[in-house]
Amino acid sequence: MNADPMTEKRLAELLTEGKFLTAKDLAAAQAKAKQENKELAEAVIELGLVSDAQIGGLVAQEFGVPFFDVSRERIEPSMLSLLPEKVAMGQQAICHKMSEKGIWFATSRPDNYEFFKLVEKRFHLPVNISYATEEGIEEALKGYKQDLLIQLKELLERMKKTQHDEDTVQLVQLLVYSAYDSRASDIHIEPEEKDAVVRYRIDGSMQEMIRYPIAFHEKVVFRIKILSRLRTDEHAQAQDGRFEVKSKGASVNLRVSILPITHGENVVMRLLSERFQRLRLEDMGFQADDLEKIMRACEMPHGFVLAVGPTGSGKTTTLYAMINILNKPDVNLMTIEDPVEYNIRGIRQIQVNPRTNLTFDQGLRSIVRQDPDIIMVGEIRDPETADIAVNAALTGHLMLSSLHANDAASTFPRLYEMNMEPFLLASSINTIIAQRLVRKICTHCIETYFLTKEEQDALARDPKMLEAVKKRAKGKPLSKIQLSHGRGCRACQHMGYMGRLGIYEIMLISDEIRPLIVRKGSSDDIYEVAVKQGMRTMLEDGMDKVFQGVTTLGEIIRAIKS
Predict the structure, then answer these.
(1) Cα–Cα distance for residue pair 534/531, rounded to 1 Å
(2) Least confident span in 65-69, 70-74, 143-147, 268-272
(3) Which domain holds residue 487?
(4) Is the four-CA dihedral 273, 179, 182, 547 of positive or negative sign?
(5) For residue 211, what are the β-bridge partners?
(6) Cα–Cα distance for residue pair 144/138, rounded to 1 Å
(7) Average pLDDT over residues 3-18
(8) What phi and psi, each to the nearest 5 degrees, are found at residue 223?
C-alpha cells in the first residue's frame, strides 16, 4: 500500500497512461482547475471526461487496495451504526460489512493505520480496507441522516397506537432535521381526505417523503403555530410567521405559510439556512468572463444592477452573493425586502409591512434619507418603487434589485410599462443579470451517451438550439454527438442530478445600447447589439455547460422555454 497521498502530477500521469484522457483533454482540465481554483480530479469530473468512480479506481490501485463504489452499494444502517457518526466523519471511514471472518471498511484515507489498529482491538476482528472517494464517503455519511426518516416512520407507527404531546414535538423536529439533511429548500405538509402528505422540494423538484394519518394533522399545525408565534385559534385565514432551529450545529430559519384549504390547513415552510448565506458568486456557475463583469459592476460607485428572471430562478441568491462582496465596514449598506430571508451582520435590513404602510416605495423613500452608499430593493414591483430606485441610482447610490423579465433585453419593455422615462433608464442602469436555474448532473453516476432520437427531434423543432448544439459539436452529425447524464444512484436518490447552478446572460449597458433605450428601441434591437458586443446568451451559456458535462440538454431545454 502506498502511504503517500495522490499528487495531482501522479493523477495526471495515471489518467493519460490509462488512456482516460488525451493530452488535449488533460490541458483543458488543468486550465479549468487553475482558473477556478479547483483540484484536477474535480475539474475532470465536471468536464465529464471521467467519472468519480473511474478516478476512485485509479487511486485505489495506487494505494494497493480494492475500490468501493458507494453509489452502487446499499449500506445497511446497522453497519453504519457500528461507528458513531462523529467518528465516521472525523476519520472519513464507514463500515459496510461484518462477519465472523472480519470487518470491512471503506475510507478515503487508507493510510490511517493507527485508527484501524484501534478498530481491530475494539471489535477483535481483522479489518479489511477499501478505498472510497471523499465524495463517496460524504454520500455514505448521509446514511446516518437517512436514519432520521427511519425515526420518523417509527415515531408515526408509535403514534398510531398511543399519542403524547411530546410525540408531536418530536415529529415536527424530525421533519425539519431530515429536510435540512436532504438539502431541501421547502417542506410541504398537505392535508388530504385520509392522510397528510409531507413533500420536500429538493433541487427544484417535489419529492414525497412520508404520509401520516389526517387525525394527527391538527396537532402538527398547532405545534408549528406555537413555534411561529401565530394564532392557534385562527383556522379560516392565511397566516405567516417564522421560527429558528439548530441542526448539526447550524442555524436554520424557517419561514412559515399556513393556508386553509379543503381538508384542513396547508403548511409550507421555507428553509433559510446559514449555509446559503455563505454562497459566493464563484460557486454559482458564472463563467470567468461573466464573473469579471459582475465584479466590475460591484465596484461602481453608483448606478443600477438588476437581476432578472421568473420566480424561482435564483435572483435573490445572486443579490445576496453580491451583498456579501459589498458588505464592508466603510460603507452604509441598507436593504428593503419582502420578506427578509437572511439576517446579515453589518447591514441594515427592513422588512416590508403593508399593515403599517411600510411598502417598498415608502421604505425606499426613508432609506435614501439614512445616508446609504448601497441599497438593495428585494424586487421592483410598481412604478413608484422603480421611480425612486432609478433616481437614487442617479444621485450617487449603488442600487441592486430584481425584476420579473424573460431575458436581459426584455427588462426595458417591462420598465417602460411602469411609465419609466427612457432617458432615466439609459443613464442609471449599468448591468443586467438574466438567469435561470438548472440541475447539475450527479458526479457519482455521471456517464456519457449519444443523443437520443427524442433529443434530436426536439432540437430539430428549435432552430436556435440546434444551431447552438451544432456550433459546439464541430461538424459531427447529431447521432454522433456524445453528452453526459446521470444514470441515477443511491447518492442522488436515483434522480441523476444533485445540486443546481445558474445559466446566465450578463448585459453591460454600453454607449451603443443607451441611444436605443432612449428612443425605446425594441428588445430585439437591444439584444442584437449586446450580442455583437460579446454578450453570451443564456442559451449559449447553457450549451457550454451541457458540453462541459455539468448539466443535461433536457435541463437547458426546460429552463430556456420556461
Answers:
(1) 5
(2) 143-147
(3) 281-561
(4) negative
(5) 197
(6) 11
(7) 73
(8) -65, -45
pLDDT at 1 over 50: no
Range with the poorest average pLDDT among 62-71, 244-253, 308-317: 244-253
The three cell numbers locating residue 65: 487496495
Cell numbers describing residue 559: 429552463
With bands split at pLDDT 50, 70 and 90, how would you rate the model's confidence at 560? confident
CA distances from 428 to 21, 297, 498 (A): 49, 12, 39
- The CA-CA-CA angle for residues 461, 467, 473, to 5°, reads 115
CA distances from 369 to 165, 359, 362, 397, 406 (A): 50, 16, 12, 12, 33
Q: Is residue 142 one of the residues assigned to a domain?
A: no
For cell 429538493, the residue is 202
**Running DSSP on this structure, what letter comes out for residue 419?**
T
Structure confidence at residue 77 as a pLDDT band (50, 70, 90): low
- CA 85 from centre of chain: 25
In a shared domain, residues 206 and 355: no
Whether 470 and 546 share a structural domain: yes
| Residue at which a domain ends, from 225, 256, 275 | 275
Say yes or no: 72 and 207 in one domain. no
Assess if residue 329 is contained within a domain.
Answer: yes
* Residue 222 grid cell: 398547532
Please tell me the distance from the alpha carbon of residue 231 to that of residue 236, in angstroms, as a whole number: 11
Provide, for the chain, the percentages of residues in helix, strand and coil under a 3-state DSSP scheme, each rounded to the nearest 5: 45, 25, 30
Position 140 in a domain:
no
451-484: b (≥16 Cβ within 10 Å) or e: beeebbebbeeeeebeebbeeebeeeebeebebb
Q: What DSSP string runs through 332-373?
A: -EEEEESS--S--TTSEEEE-BGGGTB-HHHHHHHHTTS--S
| Consecutive H or E run containing 541 | helix 538-547
pTM (predicted TM-score):
0.72
Query: Between residues 11 and 545, which one has the greater pLDDT?
Result: 545
Separation CA 562–CA 100 (nearest Å): 57
Query: 138 or 380: whose pLDDT is higher?
Result: 380
What is the secondary structure of 162-208 as a DSSP string? ---HHHHHHHHHHHHHHHHHTTEEEEEEEE-SSEEEEEEEETTEEEE
Query: Grid coordinates 425539519 are at which residue?
Result: 176
C-alpha cell at 533: 458586443
* Residue that the C-alpha cell 421604505 belongs to: 363
Please determine, for residue 5, whether its predicted confidence score (pLDDT) is greater than 60: no
Look at residue 4 in the predicted model and tell me its pLDDT: 43
Burial 404-437 (b: 16+ CB within 10 A, else e): bbbbbbbbbebbeebebebebbbbbbbbbbbbbb
CA distance 240 to 221: 13
The number of folded domains in the chain is 3
The span from the CA of 412 to the CA of 420, in Å, is: 9
Q: 2: pLDDT confidence band, cut at 50, 70 and 90?
A: very low
Is residue 266 pLDDT above 90, yes or no? yes
